[in-house]
Design goal:
This protein is of the alpha/beta class. It has 13 helices and 20 strands. The chain folds into two domains: about 100 residues, Enolase-like, N-terminal domain (Enolase-like, domain 1, 2-Layer Sandwich); about 280 residues, TIM Barrel. Helix 5 packs across helix 6 and helix 7 runs parallel beside helix 8. It is globular. It binds 2-keto-3-deoxygluconate and magnesium ion. The site of 2-keto-3-deoxygluconate (KDG) has 11 residues, from loops.
């Protein structure tokens, strides 16, 4: 069997998606997600200029070897752009292999460890009151786990909260706009929000929160400690993850579970975090973390340290990634939870999906392969539109993490 060609499909049904389609001499093709929010064209160019020419003629069944060809074989390795390309290739190859063997992807990964995938959704409001109402709406809609983000008194834009009451979308059209941030206002406000949410809804719902990399290690330790009475399912990205040792301070002061890594892309971003048991959940998704081939190894290492998966699943990851993640989550033993931020309706015009949500869980069907297809004619109706993630400054003007 040979790879005959591959192409990159860029479309924007409400937001940009990059999809890799790999063709074979047996007429079977595979799809991979290659979307990197705000940097889509960099991945397109990397795939088109460097990867696709090298893929042609290779046997698509040799996934491990092809993975290493684009990882070990490349001198300038790692990094978000190149790992997103590797991930897309890997997903497309697993899709092909499962289609060739006539089976859903999860069967290739060890079969079913569970029948349904626990997901968490997002609830956000401009202030505590609105946020509490939104949590109630999500519970009514069947969710058993809710990420809670709220506008903060005295801060104009808060991560995760849309200004205009529309569904939250991380990127906005055009160049990056600037937001402003004040950590002390955030730290003073957040515990009171969770106290109110627990008072209203009790203990019988999982609550999560994303600090989005905005604390120093000691600030994060204070936050995790003050949130401890509200029994979060996790506190996500309490600090920026480059300084792995920074998470020691959080652990020293609190038992709030920690999730990290939606911006990571290899196992090497996790080694200290795992071996020192500084985290509880890995966030690195298939689309940015080397696909199935690499995440199988990361998840296996995590399992040794009682760490579970909780893959990133915002709307800027395409349905191809989400479906592949559901197969992965179905198969592995140390699955924890999956983020689920439903895509807008028009996304389903372009992508035919094989999953559905019922009563707090996502279910995947037995379509062979990953089970998602792309309608290229429909995709062509929605051409790429430049969009960027915001940049963030402290209120005194200092550049900061977004
Ligand atoms: O593109 C960036 C988003 O995917 C990110 O901000 C979403 O932090 C996020 C999350 O936890 O879903
Ligand atoms: Mg996040």
């Amino acid at each position: 069997m040979k790879i005959t060609d591959a192409k990159v499909i860029v479309c924007s049904p409400g937001r940009n998606f990059v999809t890799l389609k790999i063709f074979t001499d047996e007429g079977i093709y595979g799809l991979g997600d290659a979307t990197l929010n705000g940097m889509e064209k960099a991945v397109v160019s990397h795939l088109e200029e460097y990867c696709i020419p090298a893929l042609k003629g290779k046997d698509p069944r040799n996934i491990e070897d092809i993975w290493h060809y684009f990882y070990k074989g490349v001198y300038w390795k790692r990094g978000s752009v190149s790992m997103t390309a590797v991930s897309a290739i890997d997903l497309a190859l697993w899709d092909i292999k499962a289609k060739v063997l006539g089976t859903p992807l999860y069967n290739m990964l060890g079969g079913k460890s569970r029948n349904k995938i626990l997901v968490y959704c997002h609830a956000n409001g401009k202030d505590s009151e609105e946020t509490i109402d939104k949590v109630g709406e999500k519970i009514k809609n069947g969710f058993r786990a809710v990420r809670v983000q709220s506008g903060i008194p005295g801060i104009d834009h808060t991560y995760g909260v849309p200004k205009d009451n529309k569904p939250y979308e991380p990127a906005a059209k055009g160049l990056a706009h600037e937001e402003y941030w004040d950590t002390s206002k955030y730290l003073n406000f957040l515990p009171s929000l969770f106290r109110k949410v627990r008072d209203v809804y009790g203990e019988n719902i999982h609550l999560l929160h994303d600090a989005h990399h905005r604390c120093t290690p000691i600030e994060a330790a204070r936050l995790a400690k003050e949130l401890e009475p509200f029994h979060l399912f996790w506190l996500e990205d309490p600090v920026s993850g480059e300084l792995q040792e920074g998470l020691r301070l959080i652990r020293k002061h609190s038992t709030t579970p920690v999730a990290i890594g939606e911006v990571f892309n290899t196992i090497y971003d996790y080694t200290t975090l795992m071996t020192e048991q500084l985290i509880d959940y890995i966030r690195m998704p298939l689309v940015h973390g080397g696909g199935i081939t690499h995440l199988l190894k990361v998840a296996a290492m995590a399992s040794v340290y009682h760490i579970q998966t909780g893959f990133h699943g915002a709307t800027d990851l395409s349905p191809v990634n989400l479906a592949a993640a559901l197969h992965f989550n179905t198969a592995i033993n140390n699955f924890g939870i999956q983020e689920y931020m439903p895509h807008q309706e028009i996304v389903n015009e372009v992508f035919k999906v094989n999953y559905n949500f019922t009563d707090g869980y996502l279910f995947i069907d037995d379509t062979h392969g990953i089970g998602v297809d792309i309608d290229e004619k429909k995709a062509a109706k929605y051409p790429y539109e430049k969009a960027s993630l915001p940049v963030n400054r402290k209120t005194n003007g200092t550049m900061f993490y977004w």
